[in-house]
Amino acid sequence: MNAPADSADVRRRNLALVLRYLDAHGPGARTEVAAGTGLVHATVTALVAELIERGLVREAGTVTSGGRGRPRRLLRLVPERVVVLAAQVSLESVHVMAADFRGRVLHRASAPHHAPYGDPRALAAVIGRVVRSAEAAVRETTPDAHLAQLAVAMAGPVVGTSQLVAAAIDFGWRATDLRALVTAELPLLDCPVDVVNDANMAALAEYHALAAEGVEHPDTVAYIKADTGVGGGLLVNGRVHSGSHGMAGEIGHLPIALDGPDCLCGARGCLAMYIGPEPLLHAAGLNPFAEAEGGEAALAELDRRLRAGNADAVSALETAGHALGAAVLGVSGVTDAGEIILGGYLATWAEWLRPGLDARLAGRRALAPDMHPLITFGVLGAEATLRGAFQTCRDALLDDPTSVPVAPPAPVATPLP
């Protein structure tokens, strides 16, 4: 009784195998695909025919085999066939990016959200507006593209398949179905909408970006970032491990001081109370600037002061480095992560964080240098979250090419009279 479903599942997996091979090794001939995937040639021929029908693959010229055989027809991906939308919510703005299957950016925009504290509907309305604008831009430039997915990256733990935002402390939310709110704002959007954790997406993107630069990652990698707030992620063998409730890697609310300041999460002395945007701006004497110009402008001013050698700014970062070091010790003790990647402004301001960070880690390094995690710094900056959201959507499509419908037929040219 299960044969039809099993057969469809096998076909889907084999289509994914062929598509992933061409993504990694193409252009290539059918014989090369068969050899590379282990599938028989006749099966590859049938699978390629379906991928061509869906517009994901096309024949792109021929190459001689060097013998007497017929020239081989090369196959290549059609990156413009699929477009992914990724949106990121920061403390003051919504950022959106549309990119094709290869990651070529087709549209990028940002808009301030001015969302009232504790009101997710107001934020969902802004997300809907910037996504509609992005979709219109994509439809104008690539009208035949298949809009595969919208991923909305939000701060706070995202729970399993329900995708509930369990809590967005910086925004004053409790459990919120952001996906339902965004979907209601986009009734004409003909693609799935997913809500993902912003730090998990950034962790994934930085992991792959560093690997592309030659970093050999261990099997367990932790990620800590600070920008909108303080968050993190945990990667096991290159995959995000979110835990039982979506909380794995929520490092911003790791208590590092028993008698520290009260945190909105209900605990005391959380890491976010020491290296988050508001505590850093306060320590650097930039509260008045933030109140007048906004948090993002104040962080830019803090960057300017750091580079100018301002004593208050430098001292604030050194103190933050000590707090960050305490969190690194806690994370490495619990997860035994072989590497900890620092992202967001923790990477941008590594020069000023290092003295405090190294001082806090010195004792453990001296005791067991071989057991201490490697500390690396992210390379993607503000791009990390959107890039990670895009990569997650792209991987989902590579895993299931049948999610892309049959491509519309090419228009037939009308002969001149």
From TrEMBL:
InterPro entries xrefs: ATPase_NBD (IPR043129), ROK (IPR000600), Tscrpt_reg_IclR_N (IPR005471), WH-like_DNA-bd_sf (IPR036388), WH_DNA-bd_sf (IPR036390)
Transmembrane parts of this sequence: none
GO molecular function ontology, one term from the record: DNA binding
GO BP of this protein: regulation of DNA-templated transcription
The organism's place on the tree of life at top rank: Bacteria
PANTHER family to which the protein is assigned, alphabetical: BIFUNCTIONAL UDP-N-ACETYLGLUCOSAMINE 2-EPIMERASE_N-ACETYLMANNOSAMINE KINASE, ROK (REPRESSOR, ORF, KINASE) FAMILY
Protein name as annotated: ROK family protein
Organism: Streptomyces sp. R08
